[in-house]
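Section 3.1: Structural characterization of target chains.
Under the original work plan, the team committed to producing a structural model for every single-chain target entering the pipeline before any wet-lab resources were allocated. The record below documents one such target. The sequence was received from the expression subgroup and is listed exactly as submitted; it comprises 245 residues.
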Amino acid sequence: SPRSPWGAAFAAAGFGLSLLPMARARTAMEDMDKAMLMGLGKNYEQQIPVVMQERLAPHRWTLPNTLRWQYDFSNVNIIHNVVYSQPGLRALKLDVYQPTTPPAVGRHYPAIISIHGGAWRSYDKGGVFVPHHSYLASQGYVVFDIQYRFSAEAVWPAQLQDAQCAIRWVKAHASAYNIDPKRIALIGRSSGAHMALMAAYRPNDPKVGKTCADEEDSSVSAVVAIYPPTDLLLWQSIPGGAVYE
């Protein structure tokens, strides 16, 4: 049977829309460059140690890297399902991404703790972000990709307690993973970004409380929040997923 011209038109329109992110990539890169210069200063790239510059990708974005992941992760070792806490019915686990190359600066690695998204009620560590965590490890960071209790398991601030517990656990095990406990950053996406911001800006807050035995403080040196919800008064109530303060 003949194909509908409407079907062909919709297919063409869909293909065209799929190309929009690539068409806007250059503008997005320029905006990010301006933001980095504004935040870190004009000469921030010159302050990066030479050994770190040699590990960086030569270009921030290329079409081949978009169509096919081209990075070499042979210098990364991944340890799965390390238990860091058990505040409820299930053990909370994390994956560790370790570089096998020596630290770029000093004798210890900086660390990154990653908090996944999912409206505080779903998803898990790993998944589509395994390549990104592997890339960060290939650059010389030890990455800890963590689980936390969902809102159906425990009400807020249980999720924040778990994030801060992970920070304390990482600091308590700094020597085991050869990391510098004074150089720990948080990275989160969506609801995980909200948790990363809360953990970074409310370290050791007695109102939050804690459920783990580690006595280290929960302060960090940096936080990266990717598309976080920051005004929860505007958050539409989702059964089992909303977070209230």
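The beta strands are 76-85, 92-99, 109-115, 142-146, 179-189, 222-226.
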